[in-house]
Amino acid sequence: MKTLLTVLLLCATFVAPMAFADLAEERLRADTLLADGEDKKAFKAYRDLARAGDQDAQYLVSVFYAQGRGTKVDVLESYGWSVVAAEAGLDKLDQHSRERYEAVPEDKRKKAEKKARSLMRKYGQEALQIKAERLAARGSGARQGACTGSRLNCRGATNSTHAPAYDGIAPPVASGGN
Fold first, then answer.
1. Going by C-beta distance under 8 Å and a sequence separation of 6 or more, which residues neighbour residue 78?
2. What distance in Å separates the CA atoms of residue 153 and residue 147, rounded to the nearest whole number?
3. What is the pLDDT of residues 88-103, one digit of tens each?
4. Of 132, 60, 148, nearest to 100 (Cα)?
5. Cα atoms found within 13 Å of the Cα of residue 100, Cβ hemisphere only
6. Would the pTM count as exceeding 0.90?
7. What is the DSSP string of 64-98?
8. What distance in Å separates the CA atoms of residue 133 and residue 120, rounded to the nearest whole number?
9. Is the pLDDT of residue 44 over 50?
10. Distance separating alpha carbons of residues 80 and 100, to the nearest angstrom
11. CA-CA distance, 63 to 14, in Å (whole number)?
12. Segment 99-149, tens digit of pLDDT
C-alpha cells in the first residue's frame, strides 16, 4: 500500500504540472478561438476541457448548448453539463444549473436527469479521480513489473473497481435542493 501511495505521489508530482500546463495552453487556445468568433472550434475546445474536468469549461459548454453557439441548441446537454459544473459548489454555478433545469420542458425532465447522471459518471470529479488513479496504477504496475499486460502474470495487481455514487440518484440540483 505504501508503494502505491508513493507511486501516486510521484505521478502527481511529475505528471500533474505537465497536464496542468497542457490544460492551461488548451484553455488559452479555446479563449482565443472564442474571442476570434470561431464558435464551432471554441465549442469543441471547451468541450474537450470540460471532459478533462475544467469546471469553467463545463459551465461554458452548458452555455454553448443553451444558446446554440458553435453547436445546436440542446437543453438536455445544457442541463447535464450545468450539473457537472455545479459540482464545484459555487452559488453562481448552482443557480445556473437551476436555471438550466427550469428551461427543460416538463415532459423531458426525467431524460434531462438521466443525461446529467450519465455525464457525472463520465466527467464528474469522482469519475475523473478514479480514471486518474487507474491510469497511475496501470503505469506503476508496468514500471514495477507487476503485470505483463497479458493478464497472465499479474503479481500483486489489484482488480478493484470503483463506481461513482450517481447510479439511481437524481443530481441534487434536479431535485430543487441546495
1. 62, 63, 65, 66, 100, 103
2. 6
3. 889 999 999 999 999 9
4. 60
5. 36
6. no
7. HHHHTSSS---HHHHHHHHHHHHTT--HHHHHHHH
8. 17
9. yes
10. 9
11. 34
12. 999 999 999 999 999 999 999 999 999 999 998 898 888 876 555 555 555
Cell of 135: 491510469
The one-letter amino acid at 97:
S
The DSSP code sequence of the chain is -HHHHHHHHHHHHHHHHHHHHHHHHHHHHHHHHHHTT-HHHHHHHHHHHHHTT-HHHHHHHHHHHHHTSSS---HHHHHHHHHHHHTT--HHHHHHHHHHHHHS-GGGHHHHHHHHHHHHHHHSHHHHHHHHHHHHHHHHHHHHTS--SSSSS-SS--------TTTT---TTTTT--
